[in-house]
Design goal:
This protein is mainly β and 141 residues long. It has three helices and seven strands. Strands 5-4-6-3-2-1-7 form a seven-stranded mixed sheet. Helix 2 (33-38) links the parallel strand 2 and strand 3.
């Protein structure tokens, strides 16, 4: 089963795998400071299985907010291996309250609010994406 997932690995897809099974999201990648600062601001709607993957150069403490973000989002925080360390469900549109992702976060997957819970995603599940690299818990190859 790992082989088909590896074969489908591409820059515009993130696979999440865990006890719930697996889910594949079509994503935009935000891997520069400007792209991460813009995020999903001013996006009026997003297809169900779509999202944005934030990629940082190294693990560190991150916090997000919903300034100018018009849709509720689940924020899925992951470490350098792509292992989910925290899920913040249903971030409130336009709220400026910081959402702490925790320490040692290198990847953040934002998806439609409430979807992580409906799918059964949990801490300890893993992300697969080419950006995760050699330390990936679920490598692309």
């Amino acid at each position: 089963m790992a082989q088909p997932a590896a074969a489908a690995c591409s820059l515009d897809k993130v696979l999440v795998r865990g006890d719930f099974g697996q889910a594949r999201f079509t994503v935009e990648v935000a891997d520069t400071a400007d792209e991460r600062a813009q995020g999903l601001m001013n996006v009026p709607e997003m297809p169900t299985m779509a999202g944005m993957l934030f990629v940082y150069e190294r693990p560190h403490q991150v916090a997000f907010w919903m300034h100018n973000t018009l849709i509720p989002l689940d924020m899925i925080f992951a470490d350098e291996t792509g292992t989910i360390t925290r899920i913040h469900p249903n971030a409130i549109p336009l709220d400026r309250t910081p959402i702490d992702g925790g320490a040692q976060v290198q990847f953040v997957l934002e998806i439609n609010g409430g979807l992580a819970g409906r799918l059964g995603m949990a801490e300890g599940d893993v992300l697969q994406h080419p950006s995760i690299g050699e330390n990936a818990a679920l490598p692309c190859n």
